[in-house]
Amino acid sequence: MRPTTLRLSAACIGVAGNFSVVKDFFGYRSGVYGHLSFEAIDATGFDGVPIDPSAPGKLSLRRQIELLQGPHIHLDLIRVGLEDFTTASEQEIDIAVQMTRELYSRIGLGVGRVLRFSIRKSKARGHTVLETEGETFDLIDEFEAHGGGMDVFFVRDMDFNVSGGTPSKNPGGCAVEMTGATMTGITLAHELAHFLGLPHMSVRTNLMSDVGFPKFPFDITSDQASTMRDSDHVFPGCP
């Protein structure tokens, strides 16, 4: 691969100058983005598979550039209550993004620029723990990252029997609970798909399952894929 190809792709998603491939081009900050296969995690239970800091994972630069040449999204990741986020939390976020990348790559939808933002506890207006759906939507309405991507609010806890939330009309963002396990990755992919226009489906093996937490293989149908790629939040392919 020629260096110019990487630089052109990086410039297309707003990454310029001297940059780190992992930290700037992929957007990973913790150095850990690996996980077991989706099938293996599903067999164990997503909430039972903790993050393994000794397994950094593998990235395909060629595949990432190929995906950016087609439709792709940008993400603005917002940590709500920054003081509560540890090194393990950052690893969890990186793995969640990588899991989403892998799931979306099945339908030819890339994840491009990934930026990080934060809200300190003193500025979070009590939204570090979300106790109702209304509080979730208040958080999304009251804050914005202004990074040009889809706003994802990571919170330490959601206390009303869900692990994520996205307004069904005119979503300005989505909220994802930090579960401490790989469940966070499927939740992120699920909530971003809502953001891109998908409703729930009564099929347990579909990513958008509403009959329990989605199960392997986390299908995305061709109709769902078309809806996601046609969203106004999706950017056209890089040259």
Which terms summarize this structure?
5-stranded mixed beta sheet, Collagenase (Catalytic Domain), 7 strands, alpha/beta, 8 helices, 239 residues, two-stranded parallel ribbon
Rg on CA atoms, Å:
17 Å
CATH class: Alpha Beta
- Terminal CA distance: 15 Å
Element order: H for helix, E for strand: HHHHEHEEHEEEEHH
Percentage of residues in strands: 5-15%
Number of domains: 1
Overview of this structure, please?
By secondary structure, the chain is α/β, with parallel strands linked by helices. It is built from eight helices and seven strands; from the N terminus they run H-H-H-H-E-H-E-E-H-E-E-E-E-H-H. It has a single domain, classed as Collagenase (Catalytic Domain) (3-Layer(aba) Sandwich). It has helices spanning 3-12, 21-25, 38-44, 61-68, 87-105, 133-142, 183-195, 222-229, and strands at residues 72-80, 110-119, 129-130, 150-155, 157-158, 164-165, 174-177. Helix 5 packs across helix 7. It is globular. It starts with a helix and ends in a 10-residue tail after the last helix.
